[in-house]
Amino acid sequence: MGMLGQYVMVDEDTLERMMEMDGSELMNTLEKLIEGGSEYYDIDKLWEELHLALTGVSASEPIEGDPLSEAVVGVHVFEVEEEDGFFACTEQDELEDIIAAMQQVDFDQLKTDGVAEELRAALKVEFAGLLDFYGKALAGGKHVIFSVA
User: Fold this and answer.
1) Pairing mode, if any, of strands 76-77 and 86-90?
2) CA distances to 17, 21, 80, 114 from 58, in Å
3) Angle 42-96-103 (CA atoms, 0-180°, nearest 5)?
4) Rounded distance between C-alpha atoms, residue 9 and residue 22, angstroms
5) 8 Å CB contact between 68 and 102
6) Helix (H, G, I), strand (E, B), or coil: what is residue 90?
7) pTM for the whole thing?
8) Within the chain, where are the H helices?
9) What are φ and ψ of residue 140, in 5° steps?
10) What is the DSSP letter of 75?
11) Is 9 helix (H, G, I), strand (E, B) or coil?
12) Which of 36, 16, 31, 3 shows the shortest CA–CA distance to 89?
């Protein structure tokens, strides 16, 4: 897909406001939150490869109810125009199950046949970074917004 993915922690009030926004408003709000010091995790273009490594399918085909799929692409998709990007949220009370599923992953045992060793190493780093980010969000009582633009 070649698009950049980013995760941003938000509080309840911010999430509720964002649920009423269109795509351009969502992107502007996320940029302002990051500039204002909200914690975020930038996965760059590796979100698609990470989803594939964890689930065996493309991120364009998220698996509803699969915590590893939801770890990458979020749980609740915002309804926005396709040209505005992709936005999804994972609510604070959903993070525990996602974290538990991620903690069960033995990254060295994933089927990543044909993946260059450099990419495999980068995915392992991103996976660990995302797991850490989710742990901080859970501890802080925050929701997570995932965006791709």
Assistant:
1) antiparallel
2) 30, 27, 20, 16
3) 70
4) 19
5) yes
6) strand
7) 0.92
8) 12-18, 23-35, 47-55, 67-73, 92-103, 117-139
9) -90, 0
10) S
11) strand
12) 16
Q: Is 109 exposed, middle or buried (CB count within 10 Å of its CB: 0-12, 13-18, 19+)?
A: exposed
User: What token pair was written down for 41?
Assistant: 């995790």
Share of the chain above pLDDT 90, in %: 76
Residue linked to tokens 């609740």 = 76
Helix (H) or strand (E) holding 7: strand 5-10
Amino acid symbol at 105: V
Q: What is the pLDDT of residues 41-55, one digit of tens each?
A: 999 999 999 999 899
Query: Quick one: tokens of 24?
Result: 């351009």
Token couple for 13: 């009030």
Judge whether 44 and 5 are in contact, CB under 8 Å.
yes
CB 94 within 8 Å of CB 144:
no
Q: Compute the Cα dihedral for 97, 148, 139, 90 and give only its sign.
A: negative
Q: Which pLDDT tens digit goes with each residue over 101-132? A: 999 998 877 766 666 888 888 999 999 999 99
Q: What count of other Cβ atoms lies within 10 Å of the Cβ of residue 90?
A: 24
Q: Which residue bears the tokens 């660990």?
A: 128
